[in-house]
Amino acid sequence: MSTVSSASKTATATAPSAKGGDGLRFLTQLLQVATRQKASDIHLKVRNRPFLRVDGVLRPMREFPVLSVPDLEALAGAMLNDRLRKLLHENYQVDSSIGIKNIGRVRLNVYYQRGSIAMALRVIETRVPTPEELGLPSVVKDFTRFERGLVILTGATGSGKSTTIASLINEINFNYAKNIITIEDPIEYLFADQRSIISQREIGADARTFPSAMISALREDPDVILLGEMRDSPSIDTALTAAETGHLVLTTLHSPAAADTVPRIISSFAPDAQGTIRAKLAQNLRAVVAQRLLPRADGGGRTVACEVMTAGPRVRELILDPLRVKEISDLVKGGAIVEGMLSFDQHLFELCRRGDITDETALQHATSPTDLKLKLDGF
Question: Sign of the CA dihedral 149, 154, 157, 162?
Fold first, then answer.
């Protein structure tokens, strides 16, 4: 990580070239425009203007020039330290994050395409939003009260998983005296100690791998561990072991729906290991939250729609039985209140009734559009 000072207060109609020592100024102006337009991402490649993603839609930044090879090389030189530049040269891609004074933080992926440097930048607000500000269902906020177990946030790239999990960590930080350790690649939100103490470790800078950092974390007297992402079977197994030994583990996983997370985890392991993983998952999984970002009815950005699967006795029973694991999906869709479940369609209905999203948006994203339409029509 590095911290970059702001070199310009406003973006001019035509931004300066990134080469010739203007890389930092160019980056600052890009981010000023991006934050004003509430963009989530910036895309940079040679022979094209910068593009912003605003409310899920890509838009060209016409006030900026077409980028050249020297422009992208200068930007990479401004954002990457010697270690990261070496990794870029060796692996043809690298992940990192930087702080921009008076603007916020940026998660960046620098990579090569057609022999030249390209970048994808994710804009991260400096302040961590609260669960209420994100519009999370109350049952999700209640997960911060857990003393142990595994809580998983799932969804597509750009669905807000990292923001939700940061919000839950900060909720613990403000309300409970805990020792919290985060293991991320790269670090995104920065936390300030409140009632809790928080140590943030970045893969590559503070630890070599997710599994090694997790094993080390178990010797650091943690109460809560944030594992940025369960990427493979070793990181999944280590996260389950941490939950099994009495810690609360919050993590993310790429999975389209809450119920799909269970087979997704189990299938990551060899057949002869799946029985053991089923048992560990049934014993230690507490909840899965799948989320999507949908356009608000008033056009003012996006709001979150969630599906929540809580791992009560019935779910644990189904996890253990490979022939019945698919029944978890029906259990979630039914929204069994006694289990604390919340289906996507239930939450979509609530968002419609509050006026947060339109009926058309809800039906477009519904699991069962016909059933939701009947419910919206009062049947």
Answer: negative
- The number of distinct structural domains making up the chain is 2
Task: Report how far residue 333's alpha carbon sits from residue 346's, in angstroms, rounded to the nearest whole number.
Answer: 8
The 3-state DSSP class for residue 35 equals helix
Q: What are the tens digits of pLDDT across the range 1-26? A: 443 333 333 333 344 455 545 788 88
Query: What's the CA angle centered on 187, arms 17 and 129, to 5 degrees?
Result: 95
**142 and 119 in a common domain:** no
**Strand ranges of the sheet holding 116-124, from the earlier edge strand across to the other edge:** 2-4, 93-100, 104-113, 116-124, 41-44, 51-54, 57-60
Residue type, 264: R
Average pLDDT, the chain: 90
- Angstrom CA distances, 21 to 18, 25, 293, 355, 359, stand at 7, 9, 38, 49, 51
pLDDT tens digits, 302-319: 999 999 999 999 999 999
Based on the fold, state whether residues 51 and 140 are members of the same structural domain: no
pTM of the model: 0.86
The helix (H) or strand (E) run that includes residue 182 is: strand 179-184
